[in-house]
Structures are given as structure tokens and as C-alpha cells.
Amino acid sequence: MSWTFDHLGIVTKSLQRGRKALAPLGVEAWTEAVTDPVNGVHIQFGRDRAGVVFELLEPIDENSPVYPALTSGKAILNHVAYLVPELEAAAEIFRRGGYAPAGEPKPAIAYGGARIQFFVTPARFIVELVEAPGHEHHFIPDA
Fold first, then answer.
1. 108-138 burial string, b = 16+ CB within 10 Å, else e?
2. Of 78, 87, 126, which Cα lies nearest the Cα of 108?
3. What is the pLDDT of residues 69-119, one digit of tens each?
């Protein structure tokens, strides 16, 4: 099964604040910001000079699944994400490896409604699976 690294997810109080924090890392190209009420976040993707993509996650409100990271100051570097061709097959590999689903699959606006699912690894970090093989983020020049 072919998986592709997609992004590192970072929780931030605001997208603007997150963009400012990542500027010294050379994150200069940004996508348009998107609100995803199903997943409880405002998001924006940025790419650094090395081609690494970061996803900023701003909670919509206190019910957002990433809101506790802001209040606790933990899990700010929130997750690593991979594009996968079949979510069920990748999820089964994770379950056999002792990864626990953090919830059911949900559609994600940033991926055209493709399904995403988060897992907590035995080492206690989070991995996101995105059922969108070949997906490319559209960065706005000089945004």
C-alpha cells in the first residue's frame, strides 16, 4: 500500500498568529483558509522552502477537538498526516499495530470531502489518515 506524507498539524490560537510563528521556519506559501465545521476547526496549509507542509488548526469554539491543546499547552505539534488510497485498509494496519482510533472517519472540506481519521499510537502521538491519494494543496503565490 502506497502512503504519502502530507503535513504536520499544529494547533494555534489564530491562523494569523500561526502564520507569524512559522515565518522564521521559512513557511512562505499559504493556501486559502478554510472553515471545517464537521471537524471543528479553521485550517490553513503552509509550505516551507524545503517543501514541508504544515497545517494550522484554529479551534472554532471550545467544543473543537483541538481546543484542549490550547488550554493545556500540550499537543500543540498535534499530528502527522499521510495520504492513503483506502482508509479502511490503512486503519486495519494501524489497529493491528495497537493504534487506537480517536473517532470515526469524517469528511474533510480541505480535501474535497474525502474522509479523514485520527489514531493515537502506542507512543502517544497522533497520526491522521487522509483518503485522498494524489491530493495536492493549492498554495497562493505571495500570500
1. bebbeebbbbbbbeeeeebbbbbbbeeeebe
2. 87
3. 999 989 899 999 999 999 999 999 999 999 999 999 999 999 999 999 999
Length of the chain: 143
CATH of 4-130 given 3.10.180.10, 3.40.50.1000, 3.30.9.10, 3.90.215.10? 3.10.180.10
Question: Which cell goes with 90?
Answer: 490503512
Domain residue limits, the chain: 4-130
- Are 75 and 11 in contact by the 8 Å Cβ rule? The answer is yes
Count the alpha carbons within 13 Å of 22 in the hemisphere toward its beta carbon. 28
Q: Are 81 and 55 in contact (CB under 8 A)?
A: yes
CA gap 120, 81 in Å, rounded: 12
Cell 473543537 locates to 64
| pLDDT tens by residue, 26-42 | 998 999 999 999 999 99
Residue corresponding to grid cell 516551507: 48
